[in-house]
Amino acid sequence: MARGRPRTFDRDTALNAAVHLFWERGYEATSIGDLTGAMGIRPASLYAAFGDKKALFREAVEAYGRSPEGAFISNALTEEPTARGAFARILREAAAIYSDRSHPAGCLTISAATNVTPQDAEVEKYLRDLRNTNLKRFEARLQRAKSDGELPSTANPKALAHYFAAVIQGMSQQARDGATQETLTQIAAQALNTWPLPDQAPT
Q1: Is the pLDDT of residue 58 over 80?
Q2: pTM to 2 decimal places
């Protein structure tokens, strides 16, 4: 005996539409009506398939984090053999991805929960926790680089992690304000010029 009616929409397609809408407008400015319109489903179907708006937002953020646009930082930290190579790649790819007009500008995780109401403070905290997780990964990678001699003994991994996170967050906002890939690439190059040189081996 069949249980309920079969779903009449593609869940992944609907979720992708929600990702783009939250990315473009942010959490607070996106209504259930906006979501159902973009996703091509009725409110009852949204609630049945995804739960409430907060649950849908979390799932959308997780889907974004698995996408090329959302996973590039994690991929660079994992795949690049040197810390400088990892951060050079992160900055370069941020410039390209954040300014790509085939999708909303900037980074969903950075921009999607600004100006939320007090009752939605948990949404803001959720994204802040994700950003802070990246910050800790930055610091850990830079600390390892210092231990390996890639950074000088005077380097401050925590300060460097905060610096590169601030640059990346600023690039996201500039992209949302209309900055081009060329402009963001110049910012990335300027930031990389601050990379501390390793200690010179004694002669």
Answers
A1: yes
A2: 0.90
- CB-count exposure of residue 141 (10 Å: 0-12, 13-18, 19+): buried
CA 157, 88, 93 angle in degrees (round to 5)? Answer: 125
Instruction: Tell me the angle at which helices 157-176 and 83-98 cross, rounded to the nearest 10 degrees.
Output: 10
Alpha helices (H) in the chain, listed in sequence order:
11-25, 32-39, 43-50, 53-66, 68-79, 83-98, 108-111, 121-147, 157-176, 181-192
Residue 134: C-alpha distances to residues 38, 76, 91, 131, 163 (Å) = 30, 12, 14, 5, 13
Write down how long the chain is: 203
Distance CA 192, CA 56 (A): 37
